[in-house]
Amino acid sequence: MRIVLVGPPGAGKGTQAALLAQTLSVPHISTGDLFRANISQGTELGLKAQQFMREGQLVPDEVTIGMAKDRMDQADAEDGFLLDGFPRNLAQAEALDEILRDAELKLDAVLDLEVPEEEIVKRIAGRRMCRQDSSHIFHVEYTPSKEQGVCDTCGGELYQREDDHEETVRKRLEVYHSETEPIIDYYRSQGLVTTLSALGAVSDVTSRALSALGRAEAA
């Protein structure tokens, strides 16, 4: 299956993408991973992306599209893939359609993870990370540390990332609404979108997604 996963920051796209890709035996292709891989490998596209990032600019669509196309052309993606973070806007969505059309392929489904905005703000703004090991993550309400400000695992200091401050989260949501949300209507007009609640246990959200994909496959 060829799937696009879309949703606002804090909706749990990365978690769901990894679980779904594993269950469906297709590669999970995320924009962040594409950038890191191309930069670390010193590819032409990676060097271009790195230059824009160093200058504090957004990576142009054509660079991101080129990276995504190269990744989708790899052997492990021959039977399908799950895209996370790409396409980010209408130009990228149209480019993806063209790439697939040229290969005589098509998308099977677009999963739209839906979370109320205030819940997103609560999820992200309440997150605390360990300075010693960024994989140790807590939440002031959902998964608080035993001692305030101290990592349960290694005793490191817990802090709030700049990107997780409420004002920053709301700005990220504004960007999502203006740039990314329009692709949902674009794909809805093609009959590809299923909107799913991303509230509740991770396993429950995964079950909803798999159920929606079952329906898409049957169609």
UniProtKB/TrEMBL annotation:
InterPro entries: Adenyl_kin_sub, Adenylat/UMP-CMP_kin, Adenylat_kinase_CS, Adenylate_kinase_lid-dom, ADK_active_lid_dom_sf, P-loop_NTPase. AMP binds at T31, R36, Q57, L58, V59, G85, F86, P87, R88, Q92, R161, R172. PROSITE patterns: ADENYLATE_KINASE. Keywords: ATP-binding, Cytoplasm, Kinase, Nucleotide biosynthesis, Nucleotide-binding, Transferase. It is found in: Cytoplasm. Residues 127-163 form the Adenylate kinase active site lid domain. PANTHER family: NUCLEOTIDE KINASE (PTHR23359). Belongs to the adenylate kinase family. This is Adenylate kinase. It comes from Streptomyces tardus. The gene is adk.
